[in-house]
Specification:
Blueprint lengths: L2 E7 L7 E7 L17 E5 L5 E6 L3 E3 L11 E6 L2 H6 L5 E7 L7 H8 L8 E10 L2 E11 L5 E10 L2 E10 L2 H14 L2 E2 L1
């Protein structure tokens, strides 16, 4: 069996543990590759049908495009509580976004678009790039976020032939030990259509 199993405990009050088993791959299309099953995860497509991402079962999703001043950004957010995730820095969840080439944005533009305002987190660092199906993604790690500084965020972005693909992920910290590996796995499940 050539698969890698990663288990991440997000240490939220419900203490849910997410396990995604991803077969080792060279990034090419492989019809024998599976990324979970109906009981543990589901494939979700954004409303514009620009991409899919694997979402753990039990999470609610929002697949609407972000308006962005008349230039919509394809988007999927997943969280047990979408409203709290969108409104606070203390709710576990993630968002995947694709800013199409018509927006003419860079990786840095997308990272800045997703970064929280000054004062939300106590530290921000750029980590080593991580591989994705579309090349190496730039990674920002933010810690000391939220009401009591117990949450952290990982933001990743990578250029593709269909625009800038980005991931925003927040949960209980620290980022390097828990959130960054899971964020990378989520990014690896994104399939552009």
């Amino acid at each position: 069996d050539n698969s890698v199993q990663i288990s991440i405990d997000d240490s939220t009050p419900t203490d849910d543990t997410l396990v995604i088993t991803v077969p080792v791959s060279n990034g090419n299309d492989d019809p024998n590759t599976t990324l979970g099953d109906e009981e543990t995860a589901k494939t979700v497509t954004d409303d514009s049908k620009a991409f899919t991402v694997l979402v753990p079962s039990g999470l609610n999703v929002d697949t609407r495009q972000l308006p962005n001043n008349g230039n919509p950004i394809s988007h999927i957010s997943a969280s047990a509580d979408i409203k709290a995730y969108n409104d606070t820095h203390d709710t576990y969840g993630f968002s995947v976004l694709l800013a199409g080439p018509q927006l003419n944005v860079s990786v840095l533009d997308m990272l800045n678009y997703l970064a929280p305002k000054d004062g939300v987190c106590t530290s921000e660092t750029e980590a080593a790039p991580v591989p994705s199906l579309y090349g190496d993604a730039t990674v920002w790690l933010l810690e000391g976020c939220g009401t009591n500084g117990l949450f952290a965020k990982v933001i990743m972005a990578v250029p593709t032939d269909k625009g800038i693909l980005a991931l925003y992920f927040q949960g209980a910290g620290p980022t390097k030990d828990s959130l960054e590996p899971l964020a990378q796995i989520i990014l690896l499940t994104v399939q552009l259509t």
